[in-house]
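User: Please fill in residues for this 189-position structure.
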């Protein structure tokens, strides 16, 4: 009887250890690999969508990533195209919404930049210009994330108020070439 009880407890212990090990394995797979797996599916979906969206001969995109939270009027779009020397312009509005001060700006920036419809290789090959967010701590996190994906600083649109009576409230003042600014600053070391 005692031997049967020990054998039953041993089996029960082995079963409980096996269940616990399976639970730990599943938890490890989902916590460590879920971001990687989700990126794989998201990028695959973007590739398939890109195939059906782009007509033959229209693979070149010229992008303005708008983080400002305001629409980009036609006049500003035309000014950006002219200053950049681009034949066309596609504006992607990235709605930042309200970010609470107690939330991580970096996580919000990462989530918003992940939502932009660009494949990893397109970040390095697609010509783009950025219209920044007006909130500097958030823009700093966004700029760092974009720099990491591009491998260099993006060009930035600087807007200014237009004179009274103009139809549009803001106009494109200049395009800041942050790579050039960084290069010039390095000569002052």
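Assistant: Residues filled in for all 189 positions:
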């Amino acid at each position: 009887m005692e031997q049967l009880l020990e054998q039953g407890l041993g089996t029960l212990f082995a079963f409980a250890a096996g269940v616990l090990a399976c639970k730990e394995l599943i938890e490890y797979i989902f916590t460590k690999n879920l971001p990687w797996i989700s990126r794989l599916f998201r990028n695959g979906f973007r590739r398939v969508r890109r195939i059906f969206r782009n007509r033959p001969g229209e693979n070149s995109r010229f992008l303005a990533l708008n983080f400002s939270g305001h629409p980009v009027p036609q006049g500003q779009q035309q000014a950006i195209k002219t200053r950049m020397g681009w034949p066309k312009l596609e504006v992607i509005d990235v709605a930042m919404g309200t970010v609470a001060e107690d939330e991580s700006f970096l996580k919000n920036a990462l989530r918003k930049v992940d939502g932009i419809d660009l494949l990893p290789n397109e970040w390095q090959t697609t010509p783009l210009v950025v219209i920044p967010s007006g909130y500097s701590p958030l823009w700093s996190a966004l700029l760092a994330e974009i720099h990491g994906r591009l491998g260099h600083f993006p060009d930035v649109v600087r807007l200014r108020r237009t004179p009274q009576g103009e139809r549009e409230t803001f106009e494109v003042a200049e395009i800041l070439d942050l790579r050039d600014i960084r290069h010039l600053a390095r000569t002052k070391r």
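For context: The chain has two domains: 1-59, 63-186.
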